[in-house]
Design goal:
about 550 residues, alpha/beta, 3-stranded mixed β-sheet, about 10% strand, 19 helices
Length: about 550
């Protein structure tokens, strides 16, 4: 795989260099192609589009096919969904990829100039993101948002929703963490498109109101300064006239102190410091994210055929059914289940994402940012969110949790905490704590210990109190103590019950209780066979 990866990267760089040399011969200097510089020269690309396709189309097709096959192997649903989409090279497209629904078929538009600037992992991500948009019905859900909030806000909200589910993001991707940093917000991850659009609209409106107030205050101060200058000029004239007639000046003596206009200017400057820095950060952020290109993102959506929402859902459902080659998990399973109009089999992932996204984030002081309440005080450092909440996951090893569910749970949870940068500690327990360890990568998840007997919850709660966690997530069959001997210290316990119609024995759970669905035993055995021993055709007809 390493040699194939290096070979693919070499082919990409070679093709990119060939295209750049070809463009330079045509008088174009696209040394480093990105969306911002490309937008300024797109008019020069239009006449060359057919010639570019004829010259480099085959090489681009080969690389694109390789990326799709990699996606089929790593994320089968995204890969098989893409295989059904019609691909069109659009060299003047202002974004890397885009898509539309034409003649009841999904069409994927790709700009090879921008596509080749990404790494293979980023290429897979930008393609999978288009599938995610389709399955989540974003092109049609966003229609009302575009009218209500505008292009920039809606496109930023779309990026925030989708980017939370992928690791290898394209260059300058907009994420929830970045928006929280720039606007000094505390938006949780894994929220809905409508939620982010509304919050961004409120943040933009507050910034505009602040700017309006500052401009009004500045006009008042300027007017006061002008009045003060006229008064001082009149006083000076009187002083000169009285001096010329030899009369004693009765006014106040002019001392070499700061004038009232200078004091007013200083007050105005102090008043403007906070907003000025905020607007500079905002301008830099939007400039870095290519605000002039944000309006063009998802522009091809507007060229889609006019269909009813139910028709679009039915078309997407057909694509999704053809792409299903195994069990889906996480948010993707929920979205596909909604297309099929049935209850999601793994809705607990969505619940945990919503719950953990609202964990209180820690703060750290920084001299780079001024204090929000007193921006003119340079001696007071500002605060930044560090997002290092501590999450502890307890896994009951009494036998109710299968090996397949064990790995499924940890993989899903790790993806959630990795998105936030939380610390994840895994506990294996029964009547006592058998083992606990901290993981920073999914590969560090260990094989579970041999199964044991009864269950006791108090030892785990005691350990969580000692470790100082922010949330304890307990996977168990619910059969244990009726009363906890030790109470949790200012953190909730999220109980996830497994098994056939489980009930929690604890009378006071100190947190929400949810049931996990039971998987079919045959599917579990097939899953384990593939994971541990390779795929076998022995169980195929």
């Amino acid at each position: 795989m390493g040699d194939q990866k290096r070979s693919l990267q070499g082919r990409i760089l070679d093709l990119q260099n060939r295209i750049e040399c070809w463009l330079q011969d045509k008088g174009l200097t696209l040394d480093t192609v990105d969306e911002s510089c490309f937008a300024k020269q797109v008019s020069l690309i239009v006449p060359l589009e057919q010639e570019l396709t004829a010259t480099f189309g085959r090489a681009v097709n080969e690389i694109f096919h390789t990326i799709k096959m990699r996606l089929v192997e790593s994320e089968f649903f995204y890969g098989y969904f893409l295989l059904q989409m019609h691909v069109v090279w659009k060299w003047d497209l202002l974004t890397i990829v885009d898509m539309a629904l034409k003649q009841r078929k999904f069409v994927l538009y790709v700009n090879p100039l921008l596509f080749l600037t990404q790494t293979p992992e980023q290429m897979e991500t930008v393609l999978a993101q288009q599938v995610f948009h389709c399955v989540a019905q974003h092109p049609w859900r966003s229609k009302s948002l575009y009218k209500k909030y505008g292009l920039v806000i809606t496109n930023m909200a779309l990026d925030m929703v989708v980017n939370a589910h992928f690791t290898y993001l394209p260059t300058n991707a907009i994420t929830v963490a970045q928006v929280n940093e720039v606007y000094d917000l505390a938006l949780p991850m894994f929220e809905t498109l409508e939620y982010y659009a509304e919050r961004l609209h409120i943040a933009f409106r507050k910034e505009a109101q602040k700017a309006k107030r500052i401009r009004k205050d500045k006009e008042v101060v300027v007017s006061q300064q002008a009045s003060q200058r006229r008064i001082e000029a009149d006083e000076q004239q009187v002083h000169v006239e009285e001096g010329s007639t030899g009369k004693k000046h009765m006014g106040k003596s002019k001392e070499p102190s700061a004038s009232s206009s200078e004091i007013n200017e200083e007050c105005l400057a102090n008043q403007q410091i906070g907003l000025k820095d905020k607007m500079v950060n905002l301008d830099d952020y939007l400039s870095e994210k290519r605000a002039d290109v944000l309006d063009q993102r998802h522009a091809m959506w507007f060229t889609s055929d006019s269909l009813e929402e139910e028709e679009v859902r039915a078309i997407t459902e057909v694509y999704a059914k053809n792409a299903e080659r195994g069990q889906l998990t996480g948010e993707l399973a929920d979205l596909v289940a909604k297309l099929h109009k049935k209850k999601a089999a793994w809705s607990w992932q969505s619940y945990l994402k919503q719950f953990m996204g609202r964990l209180q984030a820690e703060y750290r002081k920084t001299p780079v940012r001024r204090d929000r309440r007193q921006p003119h005080r340079l001696d007071i450092p500002g605060r930044l969110r560090s997002h290092k909440a501590r999450v502890m996951v307890a896994l009951d090893s009494s036998g109710s949790m299968t090996d397949a569910l064990y790995h499924q749970v940890l993989s899903e949870l790790f993806h959630i905490v990795e998105s936030y940068g939380y610390e994840l500690t895994v506990i294996e327990c029964d009547s006592q704590v058998r083992r606990f360890y901290t993981v920073s990568h999914v590969s560090q998840i260990r094989d579970r210990l041999p199964l044991h007997g009864g269950t006791a919850y108090t030892p785990v709660v005691s350990l969580a109190n000692h470790q100082g966690v922010d949330v304890l997530i307990y996977f168990t069959d619910g059969k244990g103590e009726e009363r906890l001997a030790v109470k949790p210290r200012s953190y909730p316990i999220v109980w996830m019950l497994v098994g056939q119609q489980p009930t929690l024995s604890v009378k006071k759970p100190y947190g929400p209780v949810h049931n996990l669905p039971v998987e079919d035993r045959e599917e579990i055995l097939d899953f384990l066979d593939v994971e541990r021993g390779g795929f076998s055709m022995a169980n195929q007809e």
